[in-house]
């Protein structure tokens, strides 16, 4: 972030170039409320612009305009505390400030009867605490203690209170309150990646030989080496990449830069262990690099490091799936995934992140199933094809009810008979996934179907045919499937197919059909007494996914996840920033309800589905869903009207 970079320069003693904050002796504008803030050892000076940039990167302040942020920043106090200092104790008296962590970490307790136990959570850079007591004016909670040296920004509650009345602020409060209520006793809700870094990093120059890098890795007893590319930029070489060199009999005298991953997964200090784990799972990576705010390398963590973290139980299961030696073991291991996702939700992980973890574990299951099944067929080559996850799996939005939509793309030159010889193995893979608990697509979107098993060139030709004749057969449906496609095994770039759909904006007829799908409204009566159940997917999630896909394609964005697509397309001519934000919020809310419902169905022994019965919902939940569907319908109507009266906006 720009603000973080500027702040780093100031903290290192850089010469300020803007008017600076005045020192303050009171944490609030009025002296009518006593504060239990322990006096800091040092009050620090930061310029208003730097602090404004920083607050603008933190939720829920990121919803404010720069002028409003600057007004708040002008009244902020920046303080430094040493290890063990009590930054805030809001159990004994009322407070009028809330706090944002600028640098370092604070342990936070929210229950007075558990102050001798582990903290309820740990807040790192950008973390907010003290807002409940500050906003209510009551002696409620929390107690916050510095973990090492920490710098915090103290903000007057009466200035920031309006932030929490916004949609973004209300959403922040709802998520935090729910997480607090669901938090497991005696278990810290957030462990930071800082806690998992056990060794100093190993860094080699890009010109070092592969043999030299391997030797230094062995001497350091590390499974990786970071490769210095430029200041703040690193590549990565691992045991696995060096083994590939040896297996291929390639020269180990070549520069290590030739085999490194030039863009490895990275997280900054202060990131939650869950966030780092998600990066590992998404990339099927051996390690994730950890950097400080200035871009310096601090170390790396791998899947086994996460096992010690109470908040990343998914790491152990991920490793078990990766290392399963038989399909029976693989199926057995995966059946524990729904319980894991439920545990993560109970510990306070946001539903969107829990779904990302679930999708990553599905990817791991599919990859290992491919490896085990194909290995049992010596006449087949596991490297001859690319497996694409389609639909919600491709968008990393798979839940317990999601079907496994998939396709394969073979190397050019494979004959029809050679492709057909793989079909029995693909059927076996599908059966393994079904026995593990996944749903097979009933519409035949599977590599077992010859339509979804082609060579790269055949896929390219088929895609061009769909684009030129979007109204024929299932052309637009197949286009949507491939646009949402994500390779998870084999050639992870798949350039032929990507190039075709990268030019989708140049095909106005297809874009118009995609727009028509986006604004098509399910004919479902609104009002709680006019229906007996909700279909969350058909009535809410699918319309939003369709809008997001069309809008992102129109904006030229390669994003796959629905919420990322909405953010990428916000403020476009067809989708205003306000409408994109509304759809983002609705998608998050409905996905949360969907996942919770499916976890309850799973625990009850029922088959998870997208349908909620009216009698199982509270009045508030019914109202929320009714309002959500109304918001979607209104946005679809506005888009349809724009397309009708301003034809050049259609694509």
TrEMBL record:
| Single GO term (MF) | [protein-PII] uridylyltransferase activity
- Please give the InterPro entries that the UniProt record associates with this protein: CBS_dom_sf, cNMP-bd_dom, cNMP-bd_dom_sf, DUF294_put_nucleoTrafse_sb-bd, GlnD_Uridyltrans_N, RmlC-like_jellyroll
Query: At the top level of its lineage, which domain of life is listed?
Result: Bacteria
Using the record's annotation, list all stretches that form the Cyclic nucleotide-binding domain: 60-147
The record's listing under CDD domains reads: NT_GlnE_GlnD_like (cd05401)
> What's the protein here called?
CBS domain-containing protein
Q: Which organism is it from?
A: Geodermatophilus siccatus
């Amino acid at each position: 972030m720009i603000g973080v970079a500027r702040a780093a320069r100031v903290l290192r003693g850089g010469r300020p170039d803007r008017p600076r904050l005045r020192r303050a002796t009171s944490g609030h504008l009025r002296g009518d409320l006593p504060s239990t803030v322990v006096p800091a050892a040092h009050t620090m000076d930061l310029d208003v612009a730097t602090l404004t940039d920083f607050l603008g990167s933190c939720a829920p302040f990121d919803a404010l305009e720069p002028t409003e942020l600057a007004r708040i920043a002008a009244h902020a106090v920046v303080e430094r505390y040493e290890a063990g200092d009590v930054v805030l104790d809001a159990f004994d008296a009322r407070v009028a400030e809330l706090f944002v962590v600028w640098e370092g970490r604070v342990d936070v307790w929210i229950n007075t009867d558990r102050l001798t136990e582990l903290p309820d959570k740990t807040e790192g850079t950008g973390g907010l605490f003290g807002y409940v007591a500050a906003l209510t004016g009551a002696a409620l909670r929390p107690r916050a203690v510095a973990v090492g040296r920490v710098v915090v920004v103290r903000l007057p509650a009466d200035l920031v209170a309006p932030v929490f009345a916004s949609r973004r602020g209300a959403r922040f409060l709802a998520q935090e309150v729910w997480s607090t209520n669901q938090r497991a006793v005696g278990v810290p809700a957030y462990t930071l990646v800082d806690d998992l870094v056990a060794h100093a990093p190993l860094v080699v120059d890009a010109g070092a030989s592969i043999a030299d890098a391997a030797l230094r890795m062995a001497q350091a007893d590390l499974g990786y080496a970071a490769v210095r590319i430029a200041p703040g930029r690193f590549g990565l070489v691992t045991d696995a990449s060096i083994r590939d060199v040896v297996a291929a009999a390639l020269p180990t005298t070549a520069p290590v830069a030739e085999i490194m991953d030039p863009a490895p997964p990275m997280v900054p200090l202060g990131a939650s262990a869950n966030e780092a784990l998600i990066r590992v799972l998404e990339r099927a990576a051996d390690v994730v690099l950890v950097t400080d705010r200035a871009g310096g390398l601090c170390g790396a963590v791998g899947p086994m490091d996460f096992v010690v973290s109470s908040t990343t139980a998914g790491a152990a299961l991920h490793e078990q799936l990766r290392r399963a030696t038989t399909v029976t073991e693989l199926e057995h291991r995966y059946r524990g995934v729904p319980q894991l996702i439920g545990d993560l939700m109970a510990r306070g992980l946001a539903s969107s992140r829990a779904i990302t973890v679930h999708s990553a574990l599905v990817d791991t299951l599919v990859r290992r199933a491919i490896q085990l099944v194909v290995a049992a067929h010596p006449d087949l080559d596991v490297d001859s094809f690319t497996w694409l996850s389609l639909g919600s799996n491709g968008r990393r939005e798979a839940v317990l009810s999601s079907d496994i939509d998939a396709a394969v793309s073979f190397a050019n030159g494979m004959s029809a008979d050679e492709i057909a010889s793989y079909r029995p193995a693909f059927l076996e893979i599908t059966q393994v996934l079904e026995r593990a608990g996944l749903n097979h697509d009933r519409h035949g979107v599977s590599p077992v179907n010859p339509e979804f098993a082609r060579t790269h060139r055949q896929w390219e030709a088929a895609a061009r045919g769909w684009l030129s004749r979007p109204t024929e057969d299932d052309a637009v449906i197949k286009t949507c499937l491939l646009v949402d496609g994500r390779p998870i095994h084999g050639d992870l770039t798949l350039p032929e197919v990507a190039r075709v759909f990268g030019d989708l904006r140049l095909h106005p007829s297809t874009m118009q059909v995609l727009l028509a799908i986006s604004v098509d409204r399910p004919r479902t009566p609104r009002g709680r007494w006019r229906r007996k159940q909700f279909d969350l997917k058909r009535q809410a999630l699918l319309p939003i996914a369709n809008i997001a896909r069309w809008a992102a394609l129109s904006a030229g964005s390669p994003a796959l996840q629905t919420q990322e697509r909405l953010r990428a397309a916000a403020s476009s001519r067809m989708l205003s920033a306000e409408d994109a934000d509304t759809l983002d919020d609705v998608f998050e809310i409905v996905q949360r309800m969907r996942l919770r419902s499916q976890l309850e169905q799973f625990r009850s022994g029922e088959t998870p589905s997208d349908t909620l019965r009216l009698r199982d919902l509270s009045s508030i939940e019914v109202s929320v869903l009714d309002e959500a569907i109304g918001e979607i319908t209104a946005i679809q109507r506005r888009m349809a009207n724009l397309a009708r009266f301003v034809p050049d906006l259609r694509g």
